[in-house]
Design goal:
It is built from 19 helices and 14 strands. The chain is of the alpha+beta class. A hairpin with a 2-residue loop joins strand 13 and strand 14. The radius of gyration is 23 Å and the shape is globular.
Amino acid sequence: MSTPILGRLTVKEFNLSDFLKRRLELLGAPANLSLLQQCLHGIERECLRVTAEGRLAQTPHPESLGAALTHELITTDYSESLLEFITPALADPVQTLESLEKIHRFAYSKLGNELLWSPSMPCPLPAEQDIPIAYYGTSNIGQLKYVYRQGLSLRYGRTMQCIAGIHYNFSVPDALWPLLKQAEDADVSNRDFQSSAYIGLIRNFRRYSWLLMYLFGASPALDAGFLRGRPHQLEQLDADTLYLPYATSLRMSDLGYQSNAQAGLTPCYNDLASYTDSLRLAVATPYAPYVEVGTHKDGEWVQLNTNILQIENEYYSNIRPKRVTYTGERPIQALQARGVQYVEVRCLDINPLQPTGVDLTEARFLDAFLLFCALEESPQLGSLECGDCNNNFLTVVKEGRRPGLELQRDGSAVGLKAWADELLERIRPLAELFDRSHGTDVHVKALAAQAAKVADPSLTPSAQVLASMAEHNETFAQFSLRQSNAHADTLRSNPLSVEEQAAFETQARESIARQAELEQTEVGDFDLFVGAYQASILAISH
């Protein structure tokens, strides 16, 4: 498999830090190599249900898919029309992707003539008030989810909530951290070592996630109606489409939407305690414009509270530290009680050229990228570097394919292409380590596919989307509908086996029964429930 370029990289020793080299040697030892087979991968894919004409479906969440409140694999996100498919966390990404595809195939068996919208940016939308908010029934937790979404509508508008994405959940095996802790003679508990390592991963992710936007950004254009006449800096591609010629991911740009309330909320992830404290404070700190509106209008709830955040998940971030929660437990409580268990990458666009919006090559590269972020040194982020991280990210989403584009690193300009090549070179030993542990070459091949995109921007998904629109002389909406139909044909032409279909049908029925049971057996008033829910975050000690 060796090539001249590989030989050259070996001489340079990949620019690896001694810190990373030591960790790689430890994990590459025969006794430890199999650990990397135990990394877990989960995917959540959001997608709008649309009519055959490419308009937002106004129908309720199909009952045949199950109850959105209690189904583990199929739920709704903001809108009744915004589906979310959730795979289990599995050790083999092949199985994760297969699970995602099976959920899609089951959904298509129940959608009638409706389609799953192929890209991240939404179809032409109805009037703001006609975008249906997701409904979860009459239980207290179901009502809480509904009121939270009412609050989102009030705070940010319903249009923005119709943007869809891919969330990639990743963890390394818990056994890996004590191994590193012992080798590095760290004087902290296993739990704290693991949490600080994941927070270190997040800091490195913030440094380097602009690369993911270049490689996987797939939203260079959008339907002109999306901006509802707001001022913007986009260009007109045709009468119905706005775009930026070198954009990679307009979904991740500001698009004229700035959450003033969240503007001061920039946890720079120096440790788990400061991260959870900043969110806890935001959930408990009133924000004057929200106070003015209040929590009720005409006797009905319109938002859960009048604070900067209604709940911690309202904080929009590109990556989150996560821990599986117990029933009734809040995300911050779980993190503070038991530490960080995995990360959720939230900045990935849906690739409209893929039937399920994501493929195995992307997953393989993400694994190597995230392992690099986890194992490489990760100094604290100062305010200057924090600013550079944010600016580099926004620069790449708006003009990542611009020839000669420069980013900021250590206070000076560096070419995107040169920095991307250098990063891929540093990630390569992680891809090789994964391949050694699995006895394959698939991670190195995934890395090579990304190197090709750096060399030739026309290979990026964002460029391919614009090229496909130009080739067919299509608006954004026409392109997206064509792709949605093509993917529907692919998924429908390969139905589930009788046994698989039956298993999904059973899950759907059981989820409906669980919701009904919840609604019948629940005691307690909703207002008291909200009060207790709010109090639970205030009760968390520092």
